[in-house]
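go over this:
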Amino acid sequence: MSLPPFTLAEIEERFDDMFVEVSEAVMQHLTQFDIQTQDALLMIIEKAASTSSGLAFQFANRLQRAIELMEIETIEMWLDQAIDVFDSKGLYGAIEKLDELESVASHAKQKLTGIAFEEVCNMLEHFVTGLNGRKLKIETDKKTYTDTENIFLPGMLNHFVEKDDNFQLYKCTVVFLWAQNWFGTWRCNFNEVFSQFKNPARAQAWFHMLEIIRLDLKIQHELPGIHRQMQRLNELAGHTKISDINISGEVGGVITRNSQSSDCLNLLAQVYHLELPPLNHYCGCLLADKVELRREIRLIKEKELFRQAIAHVLEDKKDKAASELNDEERREISAQQIPDPNMPEGFKYRLELDGEPIEPPDGVESLMSSIIQDLGEIPDDYLVAAGDGNYKATADEEKKSDDTNVWAGTYHEEGAFLHKEWDHRRQRYKKNWCALREVNITSGSTTFVKDTISKYSGIIKNLRRTFEILRGEDKMLKKQPYGDDIDIDALVEAWADSASGMEMSENIFTKMHKEERNIALIFMVDMSGSTKGWINDAERESLVLLSEALEILGDRYAIYGFTGNTRKRCEVYPVKTFDDDYNDEVKGRIANITPQDYTRLGVFIRHFNQMFETVEAKTKILITLSDGKPEDYDGYRGEYGIEDTRMALLESRQQGIHPFCITIDKEGRDYLKTMYGSASYVVIDNVKQLPLKVADIYRNITR
């Protein structure tokens, strides 16, 4: 038996609890619905009230008309859009969005068969990450195009009756725009070429069509599954398949899978006067002006970064500063082509010094790939070492502002990293919600490190001995076709297969095998105010012991402190980067780690996830050392903070990163299992035991 609907008095009481004033007509209108509908609508208004009472008032007074036009799910979506605008533009911007009620309702009808960008953006981001080449971000825009660093897609696709077909259209569009970048569409100065024609816009449109034909052949060869989807969508839409487009007898067959974008430019004069064939849904448009601007800035930046990386290599090889190298020495590194069928040109470059291959610093492989995408080669002038070999992921000249004044002005100030944040109440991300900066930590006296080494000298000797054994340790491989001993489990399994009439497996041996360790570790250290005193000392001692042990093991590692005060001021402190040696400078930074503000964990995890993208390692580990649950000054606490952290850690795992947490919070078991999973955290009850446990924990999780 269903409950009776809420009365007018009960509805009025709900609004009083929300501290939202609305007209009696609104409340009276709600009395006509059943209790389930009433409760659903009141919960939506409560969501608005949790953001702003002013927003809730504006929303509630438009609710009567909204109910006439939309289903409850669409009403909630409409509010979510208004809240997103409120987050970035305030109440007046949110009111403008609420006033778009009629268009939102019309848009919702299309959405019954269509699919919104918000529904698929995370899947598309992971999808494009799996493709080759420069990392591309996914954004929305009224036009569909790429500027070589971003792919811009429409906010809604409803070309087809079935939702999955519209999702496949999103994927095919992403692939086609990615192909423009990967297969060298943008390697020419288009404006210079197009300006030679009477109608430059028509010349650009024809170049786009010729490129579509060329890229279709490339995709057919490289990604046949996606190409079949493209063919199917063309049939559904009634479009001509790209492979069937017939331009001219003179041009037909000239464009092949091995053609370059320059070949398409050379054909422009022959096709310029012809009628343009219609475009397919997934081909997007060509915006050369936007590409030229991005490309010009990137070429300057990446050339300097590459030259700095080469200088860094020469400094290591010749044991002297890059500023001391003469002109001949600066040119000693060469780039040799070696076959690689995975590259569009069929080759990649290997750096060599005196005819011998050299291992480039972290991130340089992806940097070389980006340069080749733009230019098709590594030019000779890129192979001249820069005068200062202090290679960093971001060129020094980009850091224009003083670290002590980086928070002047708005949080969108140039130089900040903007990261999304998961709002579990809305079940969606807040885009570019947190602003993060890397802030230098000064190096102090190394006395603390020396005292720690002296205090734990016996333990350090044992750790070094243990880690030396671990470095040379053989691992047992099971189910091998030959080996040193019988694998009993495999033998039993094979015998059971034979008894049931199946062929008996030959893989019934074990053998010992020495594997090269290829591990990269980022150690993120909580610098929140709650770590003051004993905890801070224990954290720093832990870092000393871990560093001493890792130097024996040879694993690559970085140490970053993190703290913040609201979403607008999130800070990470590079204590030791992957490129830093464990020297007195780094030891002085460890000694200078001091407690500061709050612990907004999600943004820092996402920042280190992003940092790992430039690190080439088989195993990537992110260890958090903290004293408590996620918490910040602006409401980032409780379930909200835990759920955002959990989502950030899920993103880590999707990128192949192994997260682990070490905490001294005795209540940590209550929330860490939710965030990290049952096997990816450890709670240390006694803070004094922390330095003794950290290195041992690392040994266990990397065996």
